[in-house]
Write a structure and sequence with these properties.
binds nicotinamide-adenine-dinucleotide; Dehydroquinate synthase-like, alpha domain; EC 4.2.3.4; binds the ligand O=C(O)C(=O)C[C@@H](O)[C@H](O)[C@H](O)COP(=O)(O)O; lyase; metal ion binding; metal-binding; Rossmann fold; 4-stranded parallel beta sheet; 44% helix; binds zinc ion
């Protein structure tokens, strides 16, 4: 097992990484407040992993909420189901919520914990690659609104993150690719050497090679933790973690959440961001082609969805949380391994890119 520490100014929490950690109750128990534990998971993950997690919690009062699966369920109504269950079980403010599942479950459970009785403890036990490398770390929690992605939420950090890499063995290939999008993102925004490693090892990662996956999870968590520690509430550098997301979130919302996975939309969005960076002369054509190649090698799309007009995407992009004073603020690349935030790109340039972008 490897352990990293997220050293925030006023608190720290560990990220444990390794195979078979799910049953190791001793990793959870030091972080559980009180005796009441609510595990939140979904109908796909529960039959595979719920009993194994519960086995390590024999000394606690454990209740569970099993939600339906899918991005379309990342709503306030689902979070209300968690609050209803907490109240029905008489859980008090010393209870602990555990998120067992992908980013959808993690984001909703974290938000439920942030609000329940004005804030209770929560633990992340992520079971997708995307959740292990990104959503479980850093404390962004929340739900979607029909008008925009992650529009309702709170910053609420977990007490511990338990990354059991053995759970990735049951992940469908499409979900693995979605997780690889966020892994590639770290290389693109702040570590060109890691990007090179990913180029060399992409087929090992897609074949679920243990050693390669553990390295990718560890390096991604290190890079994410560095950014979160520097800027917990996204006043500055944390926005770099949004590379491709202004485009990607617009695609997800335009498609009604779920037909395109978050990682797929971000994969295409990162190619769009790289293309815009190349048009501005900030990165070379070669760097753009390298970006396109690695996105394709990860099994991710570079096209946009069919039937979604450029104007609709632009309208949704204008709802992005980074917009300030009515100006789009985009994360672009100054080099491979170096991101920046800019409000210097005119809507006409973005529209031109989207109009000409290949469709599915
Ligand atoms: N909070 C953050 O910082 C942050 C970062 C990135 C993404 N996100 C959010 O995360 C969500 C995407 O997360 P995701 O990609 O994990 O999607 P997800 O939570 O929908 O999980 C993907 C699918 O895999 C299934 N699954 C989970 N673990 C499995 C396993 N071990 N074996 C088999 N199937 C398994 C799930 O049931 C689901 O069908 C989006 O809502 C996105 O906005 C949040
Ligand atoms: O942790 C962050 O900060 C991120 O931006 C990580 C993203 O991968 C993630 O998708 C996040 O949920 C996006 O946040 P949002 O604030 O753009 O909704
Ligand atoms: Zn993301």
């Amino acid at each position: 097992m490897q352990t990293l520490s997220v050293e925030l100014p006023e608190r720290q929490y560990p990220i444990h990484i390794g195979p078979g950690l799910l049953e190791r109750g001793e990793l959870l128990t030091p972080h559980i407040a009180g005796r009441q534990v609510m595990i939140v998971t979904n109908e796909t993950v529960a039959p595979r992993y719920l009993e194994r997690l519960k086995a390590g919690l024999a000394d606690y009062t454990v209740a569970e909420v099993i939600l339906p699966d899918g991005e379309a369920t990342k709503t306030l109504a689902s979070v209300e189901r968690i609050w209803d269950a907490l109240l029905a079980h008489g859980f008090n403010r010393r209870c602990t919520l555990i998120a067992l599942g992908g980013g959808v479950i993690g984001d909703m459970t974290g938000y439920a914990a942030a609000c329940y009785q004005r804030g209770v403890a929560f633990i992340q036990v992520p079971t997708t690659l995307l959740a292990q490398v990104d959503s479980s770390v850093g404390g962004k929690t929340g739900v979607n609104h029909p008008r925009g992605k992650n529009m309702i939420g709170a910053f609420w950090q977990p007490k511990v993150v338990i990354n059991d890499t053995a759970t990735l063995a049951t992940l469908p290939a499409r979900e693995l690719s979605a997780g690889l999008a966020e892994v590639i993102k770290y290389g693109l925004i702040r570590d060109e050497a890691f990007l090179g490693w990913l180029e060399t090892n992409m087929s090992r990662l897609r074949a679920l090679d243990d050693e390669a996956l553990s390295h990718a999870v560890r390096r991604s968590c290190e890079l994410k933790a560095e950014v979160v520690v520097a800027d917990e509430t996204e006043q500055g550098v944390r926005a770099h973690l949004n590379l491709g997301h202004t485009f990607g979130h617009a695609i997800e919302a335009a498609m009604g959440y779920g037909s395109w996975l978050h990682g797929e939309a971000v994969g295409a969005g990162m190619v769009m961001a790289a293309a815009l960076s190349a048009r501005l002369g900030w990165i070379s054509e070669t760097a753009l082609q390298r970006t396109e190649r690695i996105i394709a090698a990860a099994g991710l799309p570079r096209h946009a969805p069919a039937g979604v007009e450029a104007e609709r995407l632009l309208e949704l992009m204008r709802l992005d949380k980074k917009v300030l004073d009515d100006r789009l603020r985009l994360v672009l690349l100054q080099a491979l391994g170096r991101a920046c935030v800019t409000d210097e790109v005119a809507d006409t340039q973005v529209r031109e890119l989207l109009v000409g972008w290949p469709r599915q």
